[in-house]
Amino acid sequence: MVHNTLDRVIKSISVTTRYPLHLLTAQADLENDLGIDSVKRLEIVLALSEEFKIPLDREPRDTSIRSIQDVANWVDTLTSQSSPALQSSPALQSSPALQSSPALQSSPALQPRPVSSPRFDQPSGISNPASLRSKAVLQKRENSYGNGQYLQMSQPIHSQGPSVRLERSFGVPSTSFGRALHGRVAFVTGSGRGVGQTIARLLASRGATVIVNSFHSRELGEQTAAEINESGNLACHMWGSIANPQHVDEIFKQIQSRFGRLDILICNASDGRIGNFLELNSDDWDRAFRTNVVGHHQCSVRAASLMRSHGGGSIVTISAVGSHGYIEGLGSQGVVKAAVETMTRYLACELGQYGIRVNCVVGGPVYGELLSKFPNARSTQHHWESMTPDGTLCTSMDLANAVGFLVSDEAGGVNGSIWNVDHGFSAIADGRPLRYSAAQQTVG
Predict the structure, then answer these.
(1) Full DSSP string of 374-401
(2) pTM of the full predicted structure?
(3) Which of 42, 160, 361, 382 fits a disulfide with 132 by CB distance 3.0 to 4.6 angstroms?
């Protein structure tokens, strides 16, 4: 029965996600191997509810369900506890007694575990359907665009103070570079949303054919590529996790087959736990390093082989100010981004002889979804704004413009550099903004 359940679960997941069957093995991790986020999990649960005629979407969240085999075991346990009469009875399907069966609650696989600190990616587990639907609506709003201009809808948490003037300048690509990247092929990892999405749109607006990449946010990645094409520029979407070597191999095989070249690589995809640094475990470190360092090193090596055959190219990595000093709540990101900056210099030294430039953009705190995930997000934003000379933080377009310059011919002499783009956030002396320290020294 278990084997039959597994087969039906795999087929149902394949139809829902459009993933090929060879990826959907019993051991495949829903999040790490397949990039299935909480919204897609809900779609899968609803499809399974229809397939097995059981209201699975009414079951409580269970973060222990990680692999496809876990899903099959979960479904099989629930179906084994329900007779055909129960499955066909609408009244009994909604019965609290059925949903809180002692036999089901006693199953170790179904016991919920404490929820850890939030991550950059979507939370694991099967969540409340209503909240997931609301989240899906918000995601669509955050990624809307129109009137011929790209609109980055991730606005500051509050609507008071200096950040108000930024709301009018979010995400509108500059036209000063024209079509300077025409004929070039650019691959932007993690570009289904956020900063990566803005970078992809900007490069496309300057004439590059952009490969949009997403893993956890597949629909958003496909939507981003479609919107770029609708705007009259060129883009395609390639799904896959930069942390998964097999996915990286498949992506670069597609790039080789479809384009035969690559001129620009933007190492933007990121993973890391936000929260108390002392609470990080080995899994947190593994995830962070596999994406930010190992995965992007492998992407750079593969990209370099394509760039060499066409006379060179440009690679830009993305770091964060937490790599230069302690930022409360940044967790593993500060450490792994410091490794990214060192990796940038090593790549620049070894690839320079082939005409390949490698540089890094170090972003300060950016208004948007990530900032809202920090503990005490509102007060944190206010504090960080007070630590910048102009009283504002970064927008995604600030970082995208820096990337756009570094990959252009105008930056031909820039290699192995680490650029801070943070509105002066990192210009700190004795724990205070430099403008205050300078004033004190003048008075003294």
Answers:
(1) STTHHHHHHHHHHTSTTS--B-HHHHHH
(2) 0.69
(3) 42
